[in-house]
Specification:
The chain has one domain: Spore Coat Polysaccharide Biosynthesis Protein SpsA, Chain A (Alpha-Beta Complex), CATH 3.90.550. Strands 2-1-3-8-5-9-7-6 form an 8-stranded mixed β-sheet, sandwiched between helices. α3 packs across α5. It is an alpha/beta fold and about 250 residues long. About 35% of the residues lie in helices and about 20% in strands. The longest helix is centred in the C-terminal third of the chain and has 23 residues. It is built from 8 helices and 10 strands.
Length: about 250
């Protein structure tokens, strides 16, 4: 299937130089799709500039856990792409991290087309979810099934986004959660987050040299204190209440 002439660019977040394993893999995945693709150089976790966009105090007050430097760098990379997208004339963009793999090219292209054709139904449309929660609503848009979960699931490996959503996310001058976790609090910025079901994209970092984030995450988790864990339970309870109120709007 060849994608119709729709005005959707794709941006791939990477920290590799041209010729790197992840970048080469991503290029091979996208080369046959007929999309206008740009690789966007992200941030190294040791880059001191990434801290300028991270609010550690709000993280302590409003997030269940501290972020690793790698997670901060990834969020800064997504924000860099959103700014690049908003500087263009495009109304929507496809954003991918460099450790994605498309499960079914034809269905993936069809989902992009169907999503674009029904873009008023969503602000962000995800193609990958890790351990998704309970489905609250399901609908068909042409040949593609999309769902809305109790909370948007982890994973920002591949998603469509519109200009308004990018503007809303960037209206937060400094972030305090991981990028995919922010999407599970859609009421804060008035976002409508949906997912294509089933997943049409996989996260395959294990085949590309391993996760760039997992070791630091586990190290941070082992050092988390009891007070932070208890406070995390309070935040989760608050999230449950807010999500029920937010989801009742769709009931």
């Amino acid at each position: 299937m060849a994608i119709p002439d729709i005005d959707i660019p794709s941006y791939v977040l990477t920290i590799e130089q041209e010729g790197g394993e992840r970048r080469t893999h991503a290029y091979q995945q996208l080369s046959a799709l007929g999309l206008n693709t740009s690789f966007v150089k992200g941030f190294d976790k040791e880059d001191p500039s990434i801290i300028d966009e991270y609010n550690g105090l709000l993280n302590l007050l409003l997030s269940k856990r501290s972020l690793t430097n790698g997670e901060v760098a990834v969020y800064c990379g997504h924000r860099k792409i959103w700014r690049k997208f908003l500087a263009s004339h495009h109304t929507h963009a496809l954003i991918l991290e460099d450790d994605f793999r498309i499960n079914d090219k034809d269905k993936f292209l069809r989902a992009i087309c169907d999503g674009f054709d029904h873009s008023l139904d969503w602000d962000i449309l995800k193609f990958f979810d890790f351990k998704p929660k309970r489905v609250l609503e399901r609908k068909a848009i042409n040949e593609t099934s999309i769902v809305r979960y109790k909370y948007a699931a982890s994973g920002a490996v591949a998603y469509l986004i519109d200009r308004e959503a990018a503007e809303k996310l960037l209206s937060r001058k400094r972030f305090f959660r991981a990028v995919d976790e922010d999407l599970s609090w859609p009421w804060e910025l008035g976002l409508s987050v949906w997912s294509v079901s089933p997943n049409l994209v996989e996260e395959v970092s294990h085949t590309l040299g391993g996760s760039l984030l997992e070791a630091d995450r586990m190290s941070k988790k082992r050092r988390r204190n009891v007070f932070r864990s208890l406070w995390g339970n309070v935040i989760q309870a608050y999230k449950l209440v807010r999500s029920k109120t937010y989801n009742a709007r769709f009931g």
